[in-house]
UniProtKB/TrEMBL annotation, chains A, B:
Native source organism of the sequence: Pelovirga terrestris
Pfam families associated with the record: Aldedh
InterPro entries: Ald_DH/histidinol_DH (IPR016161), Ald_DH_C (IPR016163), Ald_DH_N (IPR016162), Aldehyde_DH_dom (IPR015590), Glu-5-SA_DH (IPR012134), GPR_dom (IPR000965)
Tagged with keyword Cytoplasm: yes
Record PANTHER family: DELTA-1-PYRROLINE-5-CARBOXYLATE SYNTHASE, GLUTAMATE SEMIALDEHYDE DEHYDROGENASE
Keyword Cytoplasm included in the entry's annotation: yes
Family: Belongs to the gamma-glutamyl phosphate reductase family.
This protein's name: Gamma-glutamyl phosphate reductase
Pathway this chain belongs to: Amino-acid biosynthesis; L-proline biosynthesis; L-glutamate 5-semialdehyde from L-glutamate: step 2/2
Keywords of this entry: Amino-acid biosynthesis, Cytoplasm, NADP, Oxidoreductase, Proline biosynthesis
Subcellular location: Cytoplasm
Gene3D superfamilies, per database record: Aldehyde Dehydrogenase, Chain A, domain 1, Aldehyde Dehydrogenase, Chain A, domain 2
Amino acid sequence: MTIAEQMRTLAVAARQASRRMATLSTSTKNQLLVTMATSLETHQQWLQQENNKDLERAGQTGMAAAMVDRLTLTSERIVAMADGLREVAALPDPVGEITGMWLRPNGIQVGRQRIPLGVIGIIYESRPNVTADAAGLCLKSGNAVILRGGSEALASNQAIGKLLQQCLAEQGLPEAALQVVTTSDRNAVTALLTLEEQIDLIIPRGGEGLIRFVAEHSRIPVIKHYKGVCHVYVDGEADLTMAEEICLNAKVQRPGVCNAMETLLVHRDSAAVFVPQIVAAMRQAGVEVRGCDKARQLVADLVPATEEDWYAEYLDLILALRVVDDFDQARDHIEAYGSLHTEVIVTTNYQRSRQFLREINSSVVMVNASSRFSDGNQLGLGAEIGISTTKLHSFGPMGLEDLTTRKFVVLGQGQVRP
Amino acid sequence: MTIAEQMRTLAVAARQASRRMATLSTSTKNQLLVTMATSLETHQQWLQQENNKDLERAGQTGMAAAMVDRLTLTSERIVAMADGLREVAALPDPVGEITGMWLRPNGIQVGRQRIPLGVIGIIYESRPNVTADAAGLCLKSGNAVILRGGSEALASNQAIGKLLQQCLAEQGLPEAALQVVTTSDRNAVTALLTLEEQIDLIIPRGGEGLIRFVAEHSRIPVIKHYKGVCHVYVDGEADLTMAEEICLNAKVQRPGVCNAMETLLVHRDSAAVFVPQIVAAMRQAGVEVRGCDKARQLVADLVPATEEDWYAEYLDLILALRVVDDFDQARDHIEAYGSLHTEVIVTTNYQRSRQFLREINSSVVMVNASSRFSDGNQLGLGAEIGISTTKLHSFGPMGLEDLTTRKFVVLGQGQVRP
C-alpha cells in the first residue's frame, strides 16, 4: 500500500468508528477516559522505556536541550496526562444538548441539538502529552481522532496510542476511534489533508511553519492560529499601579506562550509617569524594552523600535513600547499589527472600557486583567484543544463544545408545505 | 491593474469598510435596508432597462428559456427584492448579543459576544435577486460584502449594486461595504479566493460545478452544500395516510429544489400496503418511480433502480424507492448514499422517533413532517443566506446569526495570573 492508500484506509476506519462513538452515553465515555488514565499510570515504566527510544535517537541527532526536555516523559508528566484525562471525564458532555426549541405557526417544533463533528485530525509537534490530551477531548465529545505527532516522538506517541486503544477494545468500542499515524513520512500529512470525505476538521498544533504548511495543503477545514501578538493599552485615565502589575504579569509570568503581551501601548496622558515606571519595572524583571520616538524622549536609553517590532511575536523577554495620541491611534495600531488573539485595556473610564470591548474585534478582549487569562482553562472552558484566530466556527480558545456542531431537529404531526 | 490587483484593491477597501459596519447601531442598519428597498422600487424602470441589456445578450447567445426566465427582473420580482430587504430590516440584530456571562473563581467575569465575521464573498449564478438578498443579510449582520454574480447577469447586478451603494453613501456609510465585481473574467473569482487576509468567508450559490470549483480553489473558508439527496423513511409502524401526504409533498410540491425527497425507504412491514399505495399516488402526480427488487415484487412494472439511483439528486419528477428490512438498514442506506442534508422518519413509534433523531446526523432530521420545511424561513431563522452540509461553523440552513462569530469578553479589576 502506498502512504496515500494507508491514510485512506485509516481514515475510512475512523469515519466508520465515529458513527459508533457519536451514539455513546456520557457515562460510557467517562468510564473510557478514567480507564485510560489508570492504564497510563499502570504502564508508566513501559511508557518510559518506549520514550527512551525517542530520547536515544534525539541524542544521536544532537537535538537541542529544550527540545529534548519537551520530549521527555517524566513520571510527573505521565501522572499529569492521566489527571488531564480524569479532568476531561469530569466535564459536562456537550453532545445531545438542545440549545433551543421553538414552535412555528404551523405547529412544527424546531430545535438545535449538539452532535459530534465526526473525525478530527490533530497534527502536532514534539510533545507526546498532546497524544493523550487531544485524544481525551475528541473522544469525550463523541468524535473519532487521528493523531499525527512529530517523527521525533514516534515511539512515545505509538506507545500512548496503543494503551489508549487497548482501553477502547476492552470496553467493546472500536479501536479505530483513536489512531496514531505510525509513519514519519511527511507525505502522510499531505495525504490526510486531502481526505475531505472522511475527516471533518484538522487542528494543527505547533510552530508557524507547521501551521502554514497544513493550512496551505488542506482541503479539509483547518482551525488555527499563527501567532499571538497581544497588546496591552494603558489608557489616559488608568490606575498605574494596576497597569504595572498587569503589564508585568502579561509579559514575564510566562513569556514563551502565545497569550503573553508583546506590545505595550500607552496613552500620552499617562506616558510621562508610566513609561519611566514600566521601563524600570520591566528592566528589573530582565525585559529588554524597545520604544518609539516618543517613548525614547521619556527614557533616553531605550532601544529604538523598528516597524518589524510592531509585528513581532518575541516569545521572549523583549517588549515593544509605543506612546499613542489617543484611543483611535491605539485601535488603529492593534488593527494594523495585531493577530486577533488577545488585547487588554487598562482604564478607570467606563466609556472607554465599553468602546474597547465594542470596537476591538480580537478573539479575546479584556478590561483590567492580564492577557495570560486568555486560555481555555482560565476562561472556564474546562480544557483547551487549541486557539482559533480565524473567525469561522470558533474564535479564541476552544473547549469541548468547539468539537461539536448543531443539527436541526423538527417534530411534526404530519405537516406538509402549502 | 491586473485582475488580481483589482480584486485585492476591492477586498482591501471591503476590509476597511467592514470595521465601520461592525460598529453601526441596529437602527442605522435597519434604516439603510429600508432606504435600499425604496430605492429599488423607485428605480424600477431603470433596473428593467439595465436588465434588458442582459436579456438581449441572452437572446443573442440562445440561452435556454428557463435560464432567461430566472434572469428576468419583472416588476413583481423587483418588489419582492424590496420586500425581502424590509423583512431583513425587521429581523432581530444578532450583533452585540452576549450569549453567556460567567464568573470565574478569581473574580474575572467572562462572556461571549456576537460580532460580525468581517468581509463575506458571495459567488453566485444567474438570478440577479441574489444581489439584493445576500447584500441585505450581510449588511444587517454588520459585515461588508463582495458580490460576484454570473456574467450573464452583469448589467442587472451592477445596476442593483449601484443603487444600493448610493444608499450607503447617502447615509454617510462607506460604499466599499457593498461591492459588485464588474468583470466577467473568471480569474476574478480565483483571485478573490486567495485573499485570506481580507475575506473571512466565501459562500458559493449555484450548481455543483460552481461550488466544487470554489471549494477546490479557495484558501478562505467556504460554506457549501453540493447536493440534497433527502430521504423519507416510512417505518413499520406508521400512519400510512400521513406517510402518503408527506411523501407527495416532499416529492412534488417543488421537485427542483434541494430539500425535495429523492429516495423513499419503506420498512418491509409497511411495504405490502404502502408500496402499491404510494406508487399509484406518485404516478398520478406524474412521478416516475424506480424501485429495488423487493418493491418490484409488489408493483411489477416499476422501473428497476440501479446503484446510481441511490446517489441521484434528480431535482425532477423521479423517485427512487427501496424496501428495507429494518431500521438499521434504513440508517445504513442514508449514511452510505445521503448528502447530510435532510432526512425524515414517518412513524407512530416513540422509541423509533427518538432513535432516528439521535442516530441520523444529517443537518436537519425530522419526525412526521415534510422535508420541504428544511429552509431558513420555514424553520424560523427569518431569512436564509445558504445551506451548509459540512459541519464546521454552521450545519443546515443559515440565517443572520451564521454570518457572525463570538469573541470572548473579560471584565477584571486588576487580576493577574499567579
